[in-house]
Every structure is written in structure tokens, then in C-alpha cells.
Write a structure and sequence with these properties.
Blueprint lengths: L1 H38 L10 H12 L3 H14 L6 H16 L8 E5 L6 H7 L4 H7 L12 E5 L3 E6 L4 E6 L2 E7 L20 E14 L5 E2 L10 E7 L3 E4 L16 E3 L2 H10 L5 E7 L1
Parallel strand pairs: 3-11, 9-10
Antiparallel strand pairs: 1-2, 3-4, 4-5, 6-7, 6-8, 6-11, 8-9
């Protein structure tokens, strides 16, 4: 009798253990998966930065541009991993341009009164800005100045970071973010494995400076700020020491080859127009590319 009980106990132990592990290894995962599908995907936790972002947007919609700009700047500093970082940078860039390239007075602008003998290029050089900026920011219809005319002039030094790996160009004012532009053609893409046992390319930084700026009409003529075709022209900005040129493509006439600079990086028409107005020859440029 005792032997029978022992055999029964062993059978229960063996088969019970087998049933347990069968459940754990096969049945339970299936049941858990079924339950997950029934419950649906886990809800993504809300972004804690969203209320602050919405406050920034509300200020912009109320046309409180100065307050909105300050709010977006704080947002970028306080929420570096926010899901709205890129959108905030876009919004801030638009605000910076709207304020800086306009006659609206602001804390970073001075006023200059035109004196006898002043010409546009002379005034621009004295105030460490560009003639294109003075024309655009003051809504001038030409390049002639009048004695006693009042001009608003923005302060600050600009620099540029051309990231060919990420495909973007970042404009900095006094070392701080000002606006970001997308490289539409000419980026080199992110570094990856090169295959065949070779090392993957690595990022390198090159230092250059803003060189020659030029403007071109669709028929391939180069124009200057004094020409009436200038405001509809495509702008090119060469980088000395960097081997690249930021440019907007020239829509050439039928049957003629399109003008294209060596090392060209394509930006939008409006983008190059803004950069041509803000950047001076000699402004520093950092180029990030692959070796």
C-alpha cells in the first residue's frame, strides 16, 4: 500500500511539474499576448512640456512677438528632450526673422540718422551690417538715402553651422540659435558601416568664412542690389575654406544649362535671401561633413 502511494505521489510530481512548465512556457505567453491585444497598446505618457509649448504658441497667435520669442527661447532651454523641440526651433526662427528684418523697434536694435555724405554701403560698413539688411529691414524702395532719414539697425554678430550630415544649416546670432534651414540637396547623410571590413566614415569639422555673395537672374545675369531685378534674383553664398556654396537654383531659360556652383548645397529661395541679408563677408562658418 505504501509503495502504491509513493508511485502515485511521484506520478503527480512528474506530471504536475510537466504541466506547470508547459503552462509557463507555452500557454501563459499566448494568454498574455491575447490579453495585451484586448487591452490595446499602452497609452504613451503625455509630454510634460506640452502646456509650456501651447503657452508659447498662444503668445504668437496674439501677435505678442517679443514675448513669444522669449517664451520659445526659454522653452528650448528648459525642455531639451521635448517632443516639440524641432517645432519650437522653427517657430523661434520665424519670430527672430520677423522681428530682426523689420522696422519694428526692439531691444537689439539701434537707430541711425543719415548724415550728409552717407551712402548705403558706407553706412552698412560703419554699423557692421550689410546693405541688403538695411534695405530690407527699413523697407527701402531703393539704395538712395536721404539726409535726416532714420534707419533701424540690428546689433549682433552672425555665424553659420553647415551640417551636411544632418542636412541642415543653423544660423547663430552672438553664438545663440537664430534660425534653422533645411538642405534640400547636397547633404551627405548620416555615417554608417562602409562594409568590406573598412571603417565607417567619421564626422569632421571644417572652419571657413563667408566669401563672395552673388545674385542671379533666370537668364544667367549677375545683378547687384542697385538693379531692379535683384529682389527676384536667386542668391548664392560661397564659403571660403569650406569648399561649399549655399545657393537657390536659378531657373534657367529653355535650352540653356542650369547655373550651378561647385560644391553647391541647395536651400530654399527665401532661405538664401535671408542669409544674404544677414551674413557679412568674413563671418565664421563651421562645416560638419564626413571624412
Amino acid at each position: 500500500m505504501i509503495r502504491v502511494l509513493i508511485l502515485v505521489g511521484l506520478a503527480v510530481l512528474v506530471f504536475g511539474s510537466g504541466a506547470y512548465w508547459t503552462y509557463e512556457l507555452f500557454l501563459r505567453p499566448t494568454q498574455d499576448l491575447k490579453m495585451e491585444k484586448e487591452l490595446g497598446a499602452a497609452a504613451v505618457p503625455p509630454d510634460p512640456s506640452l502646456p509650456a509649448f501651447e503657452q508659447c504658441v498662444a503668445l504668437k497667435k496674439q501677435l505678442k512677438l517679443q514675448e513669444a520669442r522669449q517664451a520659445f527661447s526659454r522653452f528650448l532651454e528648459q525642455y531639451p528632450v521635448s517632443t516639440r523641440q524641432e517645432e519650437a526651433r522653427e517657430q523661434l526662427g520665424e519670430l527672430n526673422i520677423s522681428i530682426f528684418l523689420s522696422p519694428v523697434p526692439s531691444a537689439e536694435k539701434d537707430e541711425y540718422v543719415v548724415k550728409p555724405g552717407d551712402v548705403l554701403t558706407k553706412v552698412a560698413g560703419r554699423l557692421k551690417t550689410t546693405p541688403e539688411y538695411l534695405v530690407r529691414a527699413n523697407r527701402l524702395t531703393g539704395t538712395m538715402l536721404r539726409i535726416g532719414q532714420r534707419l533701424v539697425v540690428g546689433r549682433g554678430s552672425f555665424s553659420l553651422v553647415v551640417d551636411r550630415v544632418q542636412g541642415r544649416v543653423t544660423l547663430l546670432r552672438d553664438g545663440r540659435f537664430f534660425k534653422q534651414y533645411t538642405i534640400q540637396s547636397g547633404a551627405v547623410g548620416a555615417a554608417g558601416s562602409s562594409g568590406h571590413g573598412r571603417k565607417a566614415p567619421v564626422q569632421v569639422r571644417k572652419q571657413g568664412r563667408v566669401g563672395e555673395k552673388s545674385a542671379w537672374t533666370p537668364d544667367g545675369r549677375r545683378v547687384t542690389l542697385a538693379d531692379k531685378e535683384y529682389h527676384g534674383a536667386a542668391h548664392w553664398i560661397a564659403v571660403e575654406g569650406g569648399g561649399v556654396t549655399l545657393y537657390a537654383p536659378v531657373e534657367s531659360e529653355p535650352g540653356k544649362p542650369a547655373l550651378k556652383p561647385a560644391g553647391g548645397l541647395v536651400l530654399g529661395f527665401r532661405d538664401t535671401e535671408e542669409l544674404a541679408a544677414l551674413l557679412r563677408k568674413g563671418d565664421p562658418v563651421t562645416i560638419i561633413t564626413l571624412n
